[in-house]
Amino acid sequence: METTIQQQQARGGPDQAEPALAMEAVRKTFRTAQGPLEAVAGIDLRVGAGEIVAFLGPNGAGKTTSIDMMLGLAVPTSGRVSVFGKDPREAVAAGEVSAVLQTGGLLRDLTVRETVTAIAALHGAKDRVDAVMERTDISGLAKRKVSKCSGGEQQRLKFALALLPDPRLLVLDEPTAGMDVSARHAFWDTMRADALEGRTVLFATHYLEEAQDFAERTVLIGAGKVLADGPTAKLREMTGGRVVSATLPEGRPVAAAVAELELLERVASVRLSGRRVHVTGPDSDAAARLLLGPLGATDLEIAAPTLDAAFMELTGAAS
Amino acid sequence: MNPTYVRIELARQSRDIGNLMFTVGLPAVMYLLFGNMFGGGSAQAGSGNVKFYIMVSMAAYGAAVATTGIAGTAAAENMLGWGRQIALTPMKPSGFIQSKVAVALTIAAAAAGVVFIVGAATGAQADSWSVWVLSYAIAVAGSAVFALYGMGVGMSFKSETAINVAGGVLVFFAFFGNVFLPLSGTMLEIARFTPMYGFVGLARWPLLEGAVATPGATADSFWWLVANLVGWALIFMALALWAMRRTRSRQ
Questions:
Q1: What's the pTM value of the predicted model, to 2 decimals?
Q2: ipTM
Q3: In chain A, which among 36-95 make CB contacts under 8 A with chain B?
Q4: Helices (H), chain A
């Protein structure tokens, strides 16, 4: 994590030393009927100018609450959030940060063009309406009522609204939630086309695949904390190994088998539950061969990595 | 306040024809009912006649219903997350409220205007044209207070029924604010503190100059009526701002 920051700062040059986003020991506690709920339990995060960062975590990890605080929509219970060195509300007012909110809605009885025009007027950016609609591929929908737009079209409209102030930092909260696979790809193609040029982007997602495809850096978040933060490629290595599981035969020492598996090259971890052994690592073939051959294991299964597995891996390692 | 935003918002409100007809038309219908209920509609009242008194009362009530309803749509918008979308623009909560109030006042002006036109056509009379103009202007301008009320109540309760509640309570305010029927005794003493009393009293000022329609009741001072209106305006303003800030963060 430290090295990442240093690299980013080096790349940005001395005049870019001001991070696009800085969160210091940020906590957010909600009062609920069941007592206080700590949605964000101490997050430290610095995002340098020009970075594309995935905010990866399952539902309820604290992603949206963190994003709300980055945008000044919620105030941290403690800690400090700044955007380009400013208070988030000031940065919003200056048009330096904008967002596609997951729960940020649209008015159903406005047309697409009216929606864009209304928000553009508030930004004092009416001259950007046509360009932004063109860029997000909604010009053809201009006269359509928002209520008649598909989920993907509404998402593109929200993306258009986010681009209106020409923000330096763009925050996307699960921008592809509820889209099917093809709509998701279309959305990211639009994003990549030219909209992201030169912007700092932070997007929340619970699709590992999206983080892998679009982010240089991934911040893994769970239970309101940063679990891992680093180059996405590294994280993939850490969590990307397949899991080989098999049942070890009765009557043979389990510990010896585990020791043998741990000796394999590129094995990330070996976990044991009863006689069932789980081996995680990129080289599933070697583990499978060893298990089925010399170790005489049965009921072999090989599973592709999931975010859940990654989480178990990381939280298991931490405890 | 942003003119483009207000224009788009007005276009949007005027597309809801059913609601608009109801908001703009009902006060006029109520004037026709109440105006003919009292036989002495053409009897003298202040510097006009009783029909003028009822016309001003209904115009004021109609304007307040319109502003409450239109401003209350802000609550539904917030429930859809529009408030969060707006919160990502430089528009401040106070700017959002001002824009909403401007839209509400435009519709209120139409509602009160219809009552005045119907009144003029059916025998409402005043001694001078300035009584007409001033009464109308005060009824419309004062109804802004109820835009704040509608917004505040609508956003305080997170449900779609909130705005119906606000409308229902408004009927209660109108009754207890001496708007529909002249109150007397203890009821009138309580009424002097209720939210519509100052508003409707000021709207009737050009006609009655503070006199109360109830025989023998003490007249209101101009400053008491102003204090009532301003006091409630501040209370509703605080409620609207508080509710709006609260809805911006996710619950």
A1: 0.77
A2: 0.79
A3: 64-65, 68, 71-75, 92-95
A4: 2-12, 63-70, 88-93, 112-123, 129-135, 151-163, 181-190, 208-214, 232-239, 254-262, 284-292, 307-318
